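Issue 218. Parser rejects a valid record. Input:
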Amino acid sequence: MVGTAIEEYALLSDRRSAALVSRDGSVDWLCFPRFDSPSLFAALLDDDAGSWSIRPAGPATATRRYLTATMVLETRFRAADGTLTVTDALATGGDRDPHALGAHAPHLLVRSVACLDGAVDVQVRFRPRPEYGLVVPLLVPVDGGINARGGPASTVLSSPVPLTIDEGAAHGTVRLRAGQTVRFALHWGPLDGQRPRAYGDAELGGELDRTVRAWRAWSELHQNYQGPWRDEVHHSGCVLQALSYQPTGAIVAAPTTSLPETVGGERNWDYRYTWIRDASFTMDALWVAACPDEAAEFFAFMTTATATPRAGARLQIMYGIAGEHDLSERVLPHLSGWRGSRPVRVGNGAWSQQQLDVAGELLATAALFADRLDAADPTLRAFLPNLAETVTQVWREADYGIWEVRGAPQHFLYSKLMCWAALDRAVTLADRLGAGERTGGWRAARDEIRATILRDGWNDRIGAYTQAFGSDALDASALLLPIVGFLPADDPRMRATVEAIAAGLTDERGLLYRYRPELGLDGLSGREGAFLPCTFWLAHVHALAGDVDAARRVFGRAVGYANDVGLLAEEVDPATGALLGNFPQAFSHIGLVNAAWAIAQAESRARSGNGA
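Output the parser choked on:
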């Protein structure tokens, strides 16, 4: 519901769509059949926009966890007269090929309810509202459940108990005693395709078991990291996989829209799309698991979605999860917004911005998986050199930067840095890509960018690298200078920059802001929360500098804001410590994985006597 804290939610995913389930057993967000589809339940953004609740009828306390190595959620309710578990999953379908997790997802939300001891009255309330709450569907009893018809699709609620239908909702209560289990499910189908149906109890048990096995098979292949915060890294790997769209390999920044960066503010965006930057960083994080298959899928998606084979053609910063280019933004005025945070938006106007960093992120990711390029598709082998060629032509231009400011374009330090990274990685990849004859121009441009950053990115007045050339504003993205290999982390100017950022951008909880929005640099009003990805960057840089104790302290502060099931939002409210922003946030889990890896590497160097 709109008053429920963001940290009270858990994620379900079948790698096609996502649901958020609250601690009290309410599904308050669900989009079928894709992450970016109009919602079926959106009580997260308006109490009248639909939900599906299963919980004890009376007072109860709840604890929850994901089943080991899965994204299957188990919530345990302790009521006055007994104990109940609700096991929730978006069914992934077949479980034979771990690399094809979700390929046969049936668009089915399974909810299994079991009484462990005593006796508990279980209350069920089903209130679908398709099209972001615009449609009140017609609910019709069918054999084994209820059919909800309205809008461009229909759903069937499988229910083992009779429910009362009243004003577009269905509700009822069933008493369970120790050892009894009942299973509910919601099946989606389009009006012009295979219609949804009711599932029997045994079928639902089978779908749930296959989903658990499928996630565990994926984890067994991918979760090889053995360093500090092993459990958190492994879980973040599952979360990042859960945020990937199986049919194309696209990766969403988050599965929600319009969860705000400050309560009641206007910084509310739709994150259900693939940002090249975030997706590339996700691949870098999955590289820690040493499994290259997702990288192949991702690059296949990028070469198809961008459709820019000619040199000089420009990338968009983001695409739809099936490769869509036009992500025009619109407002949904009928939704009140999470805790009154309006407007609620779908689409994202940043799709048309120029951001010069995206080629750098793509080429840096390609360099990590360089050994896969020898057998790469010819389209990819042409695509990557042409990206580098584009950088040589555009790097001197102003842009809107990593934070997608809605003010005037500037010469942002981070954008220039990633132009340098694009050409630096292109030079190393040239022979593999059959582009050795181009390296002369790439080297010259790379060196010119480097000299420009060293000269114009440094601010003598501030004693640090700043947000943009000529700017006095600090920006946490300067922490990427050593992370991408531009400067050593122990370079004197870099150490000074780290100290300045830590002093100037840290809140009272020890978390970093991206920058100071009150300076009016981004063209938007209001403040925002501290930014968890930037805090992980600080830990990462400390590790690169060999300051392991400092890295551990900063990392520990940031990871402490994961909720009870290990999920991170984008930001933290500096006043209350509550989570803010779209949830869960891929960028935050990426920062966690990469910082933990850097700390593990730093500790290994220290043990071997090689220092920083």
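Fixed in the parser; the record now loads. The two ends are 48 Å apart (CA to CA).
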